Amino acid sequence: MAYTSCDMCANYEYDEDEEYYTCAVNLDEDEMYRFLSGTQNECPYFTNGDEYAVVRHQM
Fold first, then answer.
1. Rounded Cα distance, 23 and 6, in Å
2. Would you give per-residue pLDDT tens digits along the chain (59 residues)?
């Protein structure tokens, strides 16, 4: 299953100083262009932020 939602990604962190969420991964210029233009279907840096996914898998 391909994930495309930043909201579910562990790299999507809240910046308390700026008061908004940002991606903690440093994208290079080409990756940033693909991200902003919407030409990339899924993020290669997606990490599931669901802490309970492993527990549910083991059940």
1. 8
2. 444 578 888 899 999 999 999 889 998 999 888 878 877 778 888 888 776 766 666 66
